[in-house]
Automatic annotation (TrEMBL):
The lineage of its organism: Bacteria, Bacillati, Actinomycetota, Actinomycetes, Kitasatosporales. Pathway: Carbohydrate degradation; 2-deoxy-D-ribose 1-phosphate degradation; D-glyceraldehyde 3-phosphate and acetaldehyde from 2-deoxy-alpha-D-ribose 1-phosphate: step 2/2. InterPro entries: Aldolase_TIM, DeoC, DeoC/FbaB/LacD_aldolase. Pfam families: DeoC (PF01791). Its EC number is 4.1.2.4. Belongs to the DeoC/FbaB aldolase family. DeoC type 2 subfamily. Gene3D superfamilies: Aldolase class I. This is Deoxyribose-phosphate aldolase. The keyword S-adenosyl-L-methionine does not apply. The gene is deoC. It comes from Streptomyces durocortorensis. It comes from the Bacteria. Keywords: Lyase, Schiff base. It catalyses: 2-deoxy-D-ribose 5-phosphate = D-glyceraldehyde 3-phosphate + acetaldehyde. Transmembrane segments: none annotated.
Length: 315
């Protein structure tokens, strides 16, 4: 059933109503948005604050493998790393989740059982989303039945870009209903939406439809998470909570590889949405290689020297 916040119930009453609402949103000042994202990216943090930021970033990672060559052994190894990222230092936080394809969800769930690490599964014909709705919903049911705690769905970008906004909204509502207790992350593939105005509109569609998170990207196209598109989505969740009282998470994914990158995104979160989002329940990094750099930087702060990549596992 529809999950639109009461304050915006009329916005999704029809295709024309939703179109009017979306095109009534303030236009995005692209120059201003990119300038603010760049300015916030110049902030630097040192010593104790850096140690805190590194541990927080580790705890926010959805450690991800989404390859055709994934095997049960690879998924179990990734899950072991998520649970215990640095075997030489048991104070290292575990990651938020492991993110896998639906057919690997059961393997991942067994591997992280009892650890507190969540299992996130992509679904709805990821990454293209080119399938009939009943196929997409079956994909979600299979993942949830296999033990997924979180579902990362892709929107129908073809429908969105051709102006069929209500279709996109209704598919998200239907997927949310199939999730049961699992949290839903809605992926926009921002690199395919062409404009910041489209990213803002997609963010509002996702939020109105009941997303628990809005997510930038699949990691499968040339342009993935950027400071500017993530800033725009953080503004959207901030404004949505101000209007409805409902808090929604944000997940940038793809292309975030270094500690320096991660710290920039954490600054964006703090300065845009606020401290309430500085928590793994409300902010995630979709990443694979990021964890290794965070571990090396953590070891550097602890020992005073870089241990080098040979001292962290290769995913």
């Amino acid at each position: 059933m529809p999950t639109t916040a009461p304050a915006f119930a009329d916005a999704t009453a029809s295709d024309s109503a939703l179109r009017r609402f979306l095109f009534g949103l303030p236009g995005v000042d692209a120059v201003g948005l990119e300038a603010r994202a760049a300015a916030l990216g110049t902030r630097s943090i040192k010593t104790t604050a850096k140690a805190y930021a590194i541990d927080l970033a580790i705890s926010m990672i959805d450690l991800t493998t989404l390859e055709g060559a994934d095997t049960p052994g690879k998924v179990r190894a990734l899950a072991a790393k998520a649970v215990n990222p640095d075997p030489t230092d048991r104070t290292t936080p575990r990651t938020a989740a492991v993110c896998v394809y639906p057919d690997m969800a059961a393997t991942a769930a067994a591997a992280v059982a009892g650890s507190g690490v969540k299992v996130a599964s992509v679904a709805t014909a990821f990454p293209a989303g080119r399938a009939a709705l009943d196929v997409k919903l079956a994909d979600v049911r299979d993942a949830v039945a296999a033990g997924a705690d979180e579902i990362d769905m892709v929107i129908d970008r073809g429908a969105f870009l051709s102006g069929r906004f209500l279709k996109v909204y209704e598919e998200i509502v239907a997927v949310k209903a199939e999730c049961g207790e699992a949290r839903l992350k809605v992926i926009f593939e921002t690199g395919e939406l062409s404009t910041y105005d489209n990213i803002r509109r997609a963010s509002w569609i996702g939020m109105l439809a009941g997303a628990d998170f809005i997510k930038t990207s699949t990691g499968k196209v040339a342009t993935n998470a950027t400071p500017a598109n993530t800033l725009l989505m953080l503004e959207a969740v901030r404004d949505f909570r101000a209007a409805t009282g409902v808090q929604i998470g944000v997940k940038p994914a793809g292309g975030i590889r270094t500690t320096k990158d991660a710290v920039k995104f954490l600054v964006l979160v703090n300065e845009t949405a606020g401290e309430d989002w500085l928590d793994p329940h409300w902010f995630r990094f979709g990443a694979s290689s990021l964890l290794n750099d965070l571990l090396m930087q953590r070891q550097k702060l602890s020992t005073g020297r870089y241990s080098g990549p040979d001292y962290v596992t290769v995913d």
